[in-house]
Amino acid sequence: MQRPPMMGRPEEFSLKETNPALGGVGSAGDKLTTTYDLVEQMQYLYVRVVKAKELPAKDLTGSCDPYVEVKLGNYKGTTRHFEKRSNPEWNQVFAFSKDRIQASAVEVIVKDKDLVKDDFIGRVFFDLSEIPKRVPPDSPLAPQWYRLEDRKGDKVKGELMLAVWWGTQADEAFPEAWHSDAATVPSDGLASIRSKVYLTPKLWYLRVNIIEAQDLIPTDKSRFPEVYVKAMLGNQALRTRVSMSRGINPQWNEDLMFVAAEPFEEHLILSAEDRVAPNKDEVLGKAMIPLTNVDRRLDHKPVGTRWYNLEKHVIIDGEQKKKEIKFSSRIHIRICLEGGYHVLDESTHYSSDLRPTARQLWKQSIGVLELGILNAQGLLPMKTKDGRNTTDAYCVAKYGQKWVRTRTIIDSFSPKWNEQYTWEVYDPCTVVTIGVFDNCHLHSSGNNARDNRIGKVRIRLSTLEADRVYTHFYPLIVLLPSGVKKMGEVQLAIRFTCSSLLNMMHLYSQPLLPKMHYLYPLSVMQLDNLRHQAIQIVSMRLGRAEPPLRKEVVEYMLDVDSHMWSMRKSKANFFRIMGVLSPLLAVGKWFDQICQWRNPLTTILIHLLFIILVLYPELILPTVFLYLFLIGVWYYRWRPRQPPHMDTRLSHAETAHPDELDEEFDTFPTSRSPDIVRMRYDRLRSVAGRVQTVVGDIATQGERLQSLLSWRDPRATAIFVTFCLVAAVVLYVTPFKAVMLLAGFYVLRHPRFRRKLPSVPLNFFRRLPARTDSML
After folding, report:
1. Rounded to an integer, what distance in angstroms lies between the CA atom of residue 755 and that of residue 746?
2. Going by C-beta distance under 8 Å and a sequence separation of 6 or more, which residues neighbour residue 507?
3. How far apart are CA 449 and CA 453, in angstroms?
4. In angstroms, rounded to a whole number, what is the distance separating the alpha carbons of residues 130 and 669?
């Protein structure tokens, strides 16, 4: 046996195993006992400014407009100011990274806001060596009242409630704190740099079965109406076919599928419309259905049907009003929210969640996924600010319904996040996705600014060993119109902890998707359309959070354009198929060498093995499975030690032609010139022509098999039927083992008894007719 073939990667695109100091070490050498054991501990000085009391008046009006300024060396953070308030409350936290501290004391100053120059009220002074250390899960440090002092150190009127302590990024105050490395960010941009945990909305498939309508009232009663039903849910719009039963009581019995998200903000709007002309439709009535009243089903049992009144609306003085009528048209529908399906909002090839919508159908979790986002290095400049190149990087990780976003590290090509997140795992055959982006919304760039993608990492949980911590630098690879490019590296620490090995092994025997996907499957076209709608809903909801996860970020994480045509991907998939078939081709080549007696000793051994298997056929299956077992054990020594990652050679990203990449990044519909589109169309036609030829050849071989008994060629069929009769008699009177031995010896015969011409059966098969001569 040989070592299994491994596809090598260029060094710059390979994973690099690392050994960071995870968990951190205290100043006295003691390991800090925190739950943040997959990241490097980062020390911060925290200052919580709670409130003040009895502040003296500084204005001529006898009032005070106070705010607090926290100074530590060259870093300065300020609270918001209050007008005319001597007992203000701020409750703001400031965090200063210990790595950047170049001072020995922190100064907390209370000032009075003024038009010309802010007045000094008082200050509190702390020596850094005297500040206590706090490590969660210790209780938060209780704030204390401190008497204000003037610049000479004398006590003055007024007190300030503060809490000052040394802590780490595991502190509860860390996510909402003002950070010293963000001092250059204006106040309106601070919200966009904070870390955040998001939960995507709960998605449902909404099934609307349009059965029939009754008593429709068309305007033109001299013709049979051509009625269809249009259904709208938010931005989603679907319609039935035109009813075959033309009249005022049309029937359809047609299903329409939508994606709905909790909380249900939109109503389902049904409208019966009559096609009075090719481009003119008349609304015969509308029904508005709130989704909160819709039945929810967990299995395939049908729900009850309902009748809804179709209300007629008319335009009166430019306003749409309901028309008063004595009786109403009706529509008969069956509508339900499907809880037994999983709403796909990402590609099924790297889905992170496979559970059904209804929580009642969820199985218990099988483990926990822990992800530590440590740092990045070698990031390329993504934009220019004040005449110099810069990058403001943040990470987004997605698994299941939980998305996380790290804080933005300002102006750094080697940012350090050291943030850790946890997810429950319900299926090991899922993928966690981590993306790195450049924040372009820090300095009021406007709504048109887009966060730039730096790179993405996917890690399949089933490829990870349980309870092992994987720490690697992952290359951030992006495909651009100019070619593949490495944008930097991100260091991750990941651990999959299995809580029940038996339950996890049992999952490998279960269907990948909920059972409704197999009992009542949706078509491929439906799934594509529904996935597109789900992505739009998720991106819209996450874009409304604070800080928002913007549309371009969500779409990149969910691979919204994975279904688009690409010549590069087509080549890559073709060679993937060839890679799958190559072992079969290798076996065929090896068997041909056996038949040609290239190595006589091996051929003789194969003869002996063949005789044993024919004489003792009960050994065939045990031999096959024993051979597979031995192969698996042999390959165990070469098992992958690292998680799989983006492979530029497998993706054919390095060898792609510039025009192919330009076509891949083209918009849909195209925005290129007619000459370029014509050239690409001709290229696609040539490729499709070759595919067409291969498909035609496969069809030809199949039709030749069918023609053996179809009497399309009466002489060939007569020969085959006669041969079948003779073979049946011979096989009946001859022992089966003798037939197998003779056939095997004939196949393995020495080259001296072979001819280079094709065999008789092959000649006969190639002469059989196919339907190619009937093709136009």
Report:
1. 13
2. 366, 427, 428, 429
3. 13
4. 66
Show the tokens assigned to 697: 């050849």
Q: What is the pLDDT of residues 105-156, one digit of tens each?
A: 999 999 988 877 888 889 999 999 899 988 777 778 889 999 999 888 888 8
Residue 593 domain-assigned? yes
Query: Looking at the structure, do residues 319 and 379 belong to the same domain, yes or no?
Result: no
- Does one domain contain both 553 and 581? no
Q: Is residue 360 part of a domain?
A: no
Contact assessment for residue 341 and residue 514, using Cβ atoms and an 8 Å cutoff: yes
User: Are residues 529 and 398 both part of a single domain?
Assistant: yes
Angstrom CA distances, 268 to 180, 209, 252, stand at 49, 13, 18
Shared domain for 592 and 534, answered yes or no, is no
CA nearest neighbour of 308 among 207, 215, 205: 215
Say what percent of the chain tops pLDDT 70. 94
Beta-carbon contacts of 400 under 8 Å, excluding residues fewer than 6 positions away, are 352, 353, 355, 423, 424, 426, 430
Pull the structure tokens for residue 411. 């102006």
Look at the chain and report how many structural domains it folds into. Answer: 4
Closest by CA position to 204, among listed 166, 257, 252: 257
* Interacting residues of 553 by C-beta distance below 8 A, sequence separation 6+: 396, 435, 437, 451, 453
State the Cα–Cα distance between residues 289 and 284, nearest whole angstrom. 17
171 and 102 together in one domain: yes
Contacts 24+ apart (CB under 8 A), 662-669: 662/481, 663/566, 663/567, 664/479, 664/564, 664/566, 664/567, 664/568, 664/569, 665/480, 665/481, 668/564
Kindly report, residue by residue over 717-739, the tens digit of the pLDDT: 999 999 999 999 998 998 988 98
Q: Phi and psi of 604, rounded to 5°?
A: -65, -40
Report how far residue 564's alpha carbon sits from residue 49's, in angstroms, rounded to the nearest whole number.
Answer: 53
Check which CATH number belongs to the domain holding 123 and give it: 2.60.40.150
> If you count them, how many residues does the chain have?
776
| Helix residue spans in 473-618 (DSSP H) | 501-507, 516-519, 524-543, 551-557, 567-595, 600-615
Classify residue 311 by its DSSP letter. B
Cα gap 374→384, rounded to integer Å = 26
What is the 3-class SS of 607-646, one letter each residue?
Answer: HHHHHHHHHCHHHHHHHHHHHHHHHHHHHHHHCCCCCCCC
Are both 302 and 419 inside the same structural domain? no
Place of tokens 């065929």: 588
Q: What is the pTM of this model?
A: 0.85
Report the chain's C-alpha Rg in angstroms.
36
Q: Encode pLDDT of 277-301 as tens digits.
A: 888 888 889 999 999 989 999 988 8
Burial letters 28-48, b for 16+ CB under 10 A, else e: eeeebebebbbbbbbbbbbbb
531: containing domain = 365-558
Contact 491, 20 (CB under 8 A): yes
Asked, for residue 16, whether it belongs to a domain, the answer is no
Which of 180, 213, 248 delimits the end of a domain? Answer: 180
Say if CB 350 and CB 458 are below 8 A apart: yes
Residues 63 and 140 reside in one and the same domain: yes
Residues 387 and 489 in one domain: yes
For residue 741, give the 3-state DSSP assignment. Answer: helix
Amino acid at 337: L
Tell whether 189 is covered by a domain.
no
Judged by DSSP in three states, 374 sits in strand
Nearest to 230 by CA among 135, 310, 160: 310
User: Does an H or E element contain 480, and which?
Assistant: strand 469-480
3-state secondary structure of 526: helix
Weakest mean pLDDT among 97-106, 310-319, 322-331 = 310-319
Spatial CB neighbours of 525, under 8 Å, sequence gap ≥ 6: none
Name the burial class of residue 337, with classes exposed (0-12), middle (13-18) and buried (19+) by CB atoms within 10 angstroms of its CB: buried
Terminal Cα distance for the chain, rounded = 51
